[in-house]
Design brief:
Length: 249
């Protein structure tokens, strides 16, 4: 399946999920620190409404502090009732807007991670298609966009997904299900009590001890993206999930 088609389907699934939640469920804390389930739903609409203008505005107004800018936009969008948020998700499901010169992979990654952010605390199970998880695993481990500040947190670590057999890197072991690994490496503290391996303390320390980069460092990341060749294979309408995850070591 094309990555774009996965994105469209995930947005529609998200709309269906949020539309069926109770007021109590929408008020529950998500795995995103400080955000409720309702906040996560609102966040998913901000990119649909502002597109790439959101990225450039954040660079100009906050010195590329995307975390801060996301908080501002999400807080504003979260004032809407869930019915209007769901309607926006449905209307924008087929949006082709991407992070500048970064392709569709980070868009799908954002959708799947936030899906887990909501379903895990609510106890709503789902067998996520493996090809979609593979796209996210590949993106976060091999070529994360500036929106995913991975830095060197995976250096010297070997990741093993126990349910899919995917591996990445070399060094101290961190193992768990694909869902747990994705949540752990993307900064969700919930995952650290589920993952295992002698590399877990190092990953935990790197993630939880992460400091906010200074203005110069923040500005360099989008500058590198804007001056680098776009990943044509990941932007193309025919782009599909990678056949396999690279294995190192």
């Amino acid at each position: 399946m094309r990555v774009f088609d996965m994105i469209v389907d995930e947005r529609r699934r998200a709309a269906d999920l949020f539309s069926g939640l109770t007021a109590d469920q929408l008020r529950r804390p998500s795995l995103c620190a400080g955000w409720t389930v309702h906040d996560v739903a609102a966040h998913l609409t901000t990119y649909l409404r502002f597109g790439q203008l959101k990225i450039y505005t954040a660079i100009v107004t906050t010195g590329a502090d995307f975390d801060r800018f996301n908080l501002l936009l999400t807080r504003r969008a979260a004032r809407l009732p869930i019915e209007r948020i769901v309607a926006r998700l449905r209307r924008g499901a087929a949006s082709r807007t991407t992070i500048p010169r970064s392709g569709y992979d980070p868009v799908l990654s954002d959708l799947l991670l936030h899906d887990l952010d909501v379903r895990v605390p609510l106890g709503i199970r789902r067998d996520t298609p493996e090809d979609r998880l593979r796209v996210v695993f590949r993106h976060l481990t091999q070529e994360p966009s500036p929106g995913y500040t991975m830095g060197d947190r995976l250096a010297g670590l070997r990741l093993v997904a126990t349910d899919t057999g995917w591996t990445y890197g070399s060094g101290a072991l961190v193992r768990g299900s694909a869902d747990e690994l994705l949540l752990g490496i993307s900064g969700r503290a919930w995952a650290f009590d589920r993952l295992a391996g002698d590399g877990l303390p190092l990953l935990r320390a790197r993630v939880l001890g992460r400091t906010r980069p200074g203005a110069a460092t923040r500005l360099m990341a989008p500058l590198r993206v804007l001056t680098s060749p776009p990943p044509r294979d990941r932007r193309a309408r025919t782009a599909v999930a990678p056949a396999q995850v690279r294995q190192d070591g």
